[in-house]
Structure formats: structure tokens, C-alpha cells
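Comment thread on ticket #2218

A.B. wrote:
> Attaching the input chain for the structure job we discussed in standup.
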Amino acid sequence: MNSKQHLHHGRHGRTAYHFQPAKNWMNDPNGPLYHNGMYHFFYQYNPHDPLFGAGKLSWGHSASGDLVNWAFLGTALDPTSTFDVRGCWSGSTTAMPDGRLAILYTGRDADEVQVQNVAFARNPSDLLLLEWDKPSFNPIIPQPADVTGNNFRDPTTAWLGRDGLWRFAIAAEVDGVGSTVIYRSADFVSWERNALPLHASPGIPCWECPDFFPVAEQGTEGLDTSANGAGVRHVLKLSKAADEDYYVVGRYDDEADTFVPVEDGEQADVRNWRRIDHGHLFAAKSFFDARRKRRVLWAWVDEMDSRSDDVAKGWTGIQSFPRALWLDTDGKQLVQWPVEEIETLRRKQVTLLGAVVGSGGLHEIAGIETLQADVEVVFEIPNLKEAEQLDPKWLQDPQKLCAEKGAAVQGAVGPFGLTVMASGDMREQTTIFFRVFKHDDAYKVLMCTDLTRSSTKEGVQKPIYAGFVDMDVEKDKSVSLRTLIDHSVIESFGGGGRTCITARVYPEHVATGRNHLYVFNNGLDAVKVSKLEAWELATASVNVEDDGLLALLPPMVVPILSDDAE
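C.D. wrote:
> Ran it. Output below, let me know if you need it in another format.
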């Protein structure tokens, strides 16, 4: 195990309970896995530098007993072979019925050509899965002749079809068209490509980091990646290079290996799909957690400050807090929610019940440390009739709508929400808020996270993020918000997790002054906070030396970790 240095949370923007490396560069989540009572997390990692550099990346590896506290186990894959000497890039892990564990990953070979490789756990019964073997017969899939732009990467977790063959999906630029293609194999070594792509999007030549997984039509339980048949739909998720993550729900035929979205409209263009997150989040990757029968999503949350800041602090990149996800009752959208293990970090609590926040009202939530907190609030909307009419042009550009109608711009129903990471003089603040509009004899709920005043620091990106919440606000007469605050990251879940917005913030006041949290309302009518609960969260042990972590791991693992730490 590599030596680890304890860095106090908050120093250089370090988070308290989000996954991040102790030092150096991290980006895409790769191959999260639950195996033999342990959670394993692999990730794109530069063990030598806090920057991406030339992309000669390894797979970092950490393990946990609870998805909250993590021990760094070094690197699982390094760029040491001819088929990956320029970098071990993204991929996935697959657990096989015979007990074997495999990694499928993209290697950049000596000529920087993207090829697909396999590695196997040397000893699957090893609880820490420390050693992985890369067979000399790699690459298992050389780059096909019809791939253009050298874009052929990021294999998904494999699944078994009803014909007994393994399959995985991978992003490929096929003759200039951004495609997701399927490969099949009987032995996990010899693979054949399906003639038709699973999906093709002519508008964008390069998609990456696909994820393809089943969801139950009813209920919140997750499904094993090989599940199919009655009562099952599938989700295809794609990432637009260095941009955003999009997904669509559909029906998958594992005989023809075809996928048909359930929603009508222009679904060929991925940019018309739904968003995993409307903020700053990329390369989402999910896994089936057999321990709690749920599907759990990870995603990379990049820095928004400068390269010189990254060098100064010695590390770059975090992961979103793990989210359980399931299919909403409408059968079209996903619901995401922080995994319940976050509640083990809850400490001091404050509660607000039935408070009415009048027009222009600002109500401080005091009594807890709000630099690392979990806030849940339900806003009751007594009067929707006065809601403003929504101009249809805004449906395709909610971000611009939020920019024009920010938190300080009075509306009819809203803006109302939370002001977080606020300095005492309010010069620094981040707002997460809702507005309600009339639209087509119904109502549309807009959700915004506004970073324009999040920091007085120069050289920091401070965008506005926005998305509509697909919910029946007329029926519910309320809208809920849950926000996780953790020093430099804010994750918000609107409408019970139907719309998510993740943001990075770098306020300067936290170094010397107190941090403040408020509920606010700038709508013409009052809103009622039917319930607000806020918890101060403890600091987790994430990839640093901490004896407390050992208590969370199975007893037989503790001597191994202790020996490695010496």
C-alpha cells in the first residue's frame, strides 16, 4: 500500500465526506464493485502529479465497508504493457458466476491507438483484491478499421444474455458517427461486434463513458446488470466529451441487441435526452449493490479553479457522493438520492417547522456548522394561480432563464430556496432556488443553482446551472429540496431527486470567518416551510490514515491493512 498523509478537511478546499485522493489527479470512476462484503472503487488516477498531464493514467483503487470511509490501496492497473503503455483509461469491472472478477478497460498502446484489454483478479477470494493480471494476449479487441478519430473507448460492465453469451457496450466513432456498439463473447476473451449499433447519434462524432443497466418498472430496488424480461426497462447513459451526462430509458432486446427509447420525439440526438445532473458532473458510472439490492451511481466532479490552484493544493478532482437510483413512477426518468449511509455522519441537528417566509424574507438556520451539512426542506406553495406565464423559448434554455431571473429578481411564485456558503456580509453566497411558471394549462418548476456570487476570488468559474423539475406541483402543492454542503462542493436534489445539480465553489470567507445558511423567498406571495431539518455532518476518513476506518472493515482485513501501513 502506498504511504498516506493525513490532510485536514477544508485545507485547500478539501472536502469532509466526498471521495477524493489524498494527493494527485483523479477523474472518471471505473468499475465500482461490491464483492465479499467489501465495496471497491477504481478510478482514473495519475500517481505522479495533480494534473492530467499526458494522460498516462493508472487505475487507483480504494476499499470501504460502508461507502463513506475509504482506504487507499494503491494502483490496480499501471501503464506497463505495450497495449496500455500510454495510459490505462476508463472501463468497468464484471463479477462472473464462476467467481472470477474481470476488468475491461481501454488502453492507449505505444502508438496512442485506443484498444480494449482485459485483466483478471489474481485471487478473487482476496478481500482487498490487491493484485490484477493483464494477460499477454491483450488487446482482446484491436481498434476496428471503421473507427475514425481514434475514438474507441470506455467499455461498460458486461452482462449475460439469455443465450449465455457475455456482452458489453462501448463508445465508438464509427465512420464519423457517435455510436454505442455491442460486443459478444462466450469466454470473455474472444469478442465479436454486433452488426448494428445499440445507438447512433449523427450530430456528435464522439461520445464517451457509456453506462447501460436495467431498472425495475416498479419500486426502488436495483437489479443485477444481467437482469432482463418482464417488468424491466433499460437505461443508456452517454457522456459528451468534457461536457455533460445524458440518459434515456428504453426497452432492450438481448436477441437482436437493439434498444428503443420509451419517450417520443427526437431521441436519436442524445442532446435531447434527460440529464443525469444539470450541474458540473461527468462520466457517471453505476453498479449493482447486492448487499442492499440497489443501483448506486458515482460521477466525477472536476475542479473549477485554476491549474495553479490544483498544483498548490497537490490534488485534483472529487467524486459525487454515491447515489441510489431507480425509475420514477412515470417510467421515463430516474430518481437519484444520496445513499442512506450518509446518515451515519449526522451529528447536531436543527429543525424548523411551519415557518412562513414572507416576500423578501431571509431566515437564518443557525446552531450547526454549515460547511459540512445535510439540509432537507419542503416548501409549501399556497397559491399557484398568480404564477407567471412561461415563454416556450425557455424550455430549451433553462440556464439562460435562471440568469435573467436570478434569486434577487422578484417573481410571482418564487424564487424561494436556500442561500448556502454565505459570508457574514453576504458578499459571498450561493443560492439554490425554485420558480414556478404556468405552461400549457399546467405548471413548470424551474430549479437553479447560482454561483455568480459564490466567491470573490479571481480565476474561479462561477456559472449558473438550471433544469426543470418534472413533477406535478399542482397536485403536491409543495416542492422539496435536499442539499449536501461539503466545503467546495454543493449537491442539490430537487423534487425528491428528480432533478439534481452539482456545483464546485471556492469562497474565501471560510478561511477566516463564519459560514451562514438561510432560507429565503423573493416571490410576491409567502411560502411556508412545512419542514426543514439540517444536520451537521462529521468528517469521514477518505483515503487517509485513520484507525477509525479499521473498525468499519471486516475483522480479517484489519491485520492486512495494519501490515501494509507500517
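A.B. wrote:
> Thanks. Noting for the ticket: The helical segments are 307-313, 398-404, 473-476, 547-550, 558-565.
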